[in-house]
C-alpha cells in the first residue's frame, strides 16, 4: 500500500515538473508569436474554461439530484420518504451480527466448562488423591508406577517366546 502511495506521489511530481517545463517553454515562445495567433489562443482558452465550468456545474447538479432522489444513506436519515420496514430492514444485518457473536461466546463458554469438567472428573476418579499432585515425590511415584505396569507387559511378551 505504501508503494502505491509512493508511486502516485512520484507520478504526481513528474507530471508537475513536466507541466512546469511546458509552461515555461510556451511562455518563452509566446513573445515570438504574431498577434493574430495570440488572440486565437486566448479565445480558445476562454472557450475551454467556459466549457469546463459548465460541465462542473452540471456534474454538481446531477450529484445533488442523485442524493435527493434517494440513495442508501437516505434510508436511515428519514425525511419521511422511506417506509418504516425499510429502516428496520437496514438494521437487520447488525442484529444478525450481534446474535452470531453471542452464539459464538456461548459455545466457547460451554466448551471451557466441558473441558474443566473432564479434567476434574479425571482428577477425582484417579487412584491418587488431589493432594498427591502437589507432593514433591509425585514424579518418583509416577515413574515407579510406570515401571510396575511395564514389567507385567514385558513378562507377558517373554512368556509366549519361551513356549515356542
The largest β sheet comes out as: none
Counting helices, strands and paired strands, the structural category is mainly alpha
User: Overall pLDDT, averaged?
Assistant: 79
Q: How widely separated are the two ends?
A: 75 Å
What is the radius of gyration?
A: 42 Å
Q: Report the total helices.
A: 5
SS elements, strand count: 0
Unreliable stretches:
none
Our estimate of the beta-strand percent is under 5%
Element-by-element helix/strand order: HHHHH
**Bulk shape:** elongated
What this model shows, in words?
- With 164 residues, the protein is mostly helical.
- 83% of the residues lie in helices and 0% in strands.
- It contains five helices and no strands.
- The radius of gyration is 42 Å and the shape is elongated.
- The two termini are 75 Å apart.
Amino acid at each position: 500500500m505504501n508503494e502505491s502511495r509512493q508511486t502516485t506521489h512520484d507520478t504526481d511530481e513528474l507530471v508537475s515538473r513536466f507541466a512546469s517545463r511546458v509552461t515555461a517553454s510556451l511562455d518563452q515562445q509566446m513573445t515570438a508569436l504574431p498577434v493574430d495567433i495570440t488572440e486565437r489562443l486566448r479565445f480558445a482558452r476562454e472557450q475551454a474554461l467556459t466549457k469546463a465550468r459548465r460541465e462542473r456545474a452540471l456534474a454538481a447538479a446531477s450529484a445533488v439530484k442523485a442524493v435527493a432522489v434517494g440513495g442508501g444513506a437516505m434510508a436511515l436519515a428519514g425525511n419521511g420518504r422511506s417506509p418504516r420496514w425499510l429502516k428496520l430492514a437496514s438494521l437487520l444485518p447488525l442484529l444478525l451480527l450481534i446474535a452470531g457473536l453471542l452464539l459464538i461466546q456461548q459455545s466457547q463458554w460451554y466448551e471451557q466448562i466441558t473441558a474443566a469438567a473432564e479434567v476434574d472428573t479425571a482428577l477425582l476418579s484417579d487412584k491418587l488423591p488431589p493432594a498427591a499432585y502437589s507432593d514433591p515425590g509425585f514424579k518418583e511415584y509416577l515413574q515407579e508406577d510406570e515401571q510396575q505396569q511395564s514389567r507385567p507387559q514385558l513378562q507377558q511378551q517373554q512368556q509366549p517366546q519361551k513356549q515356542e
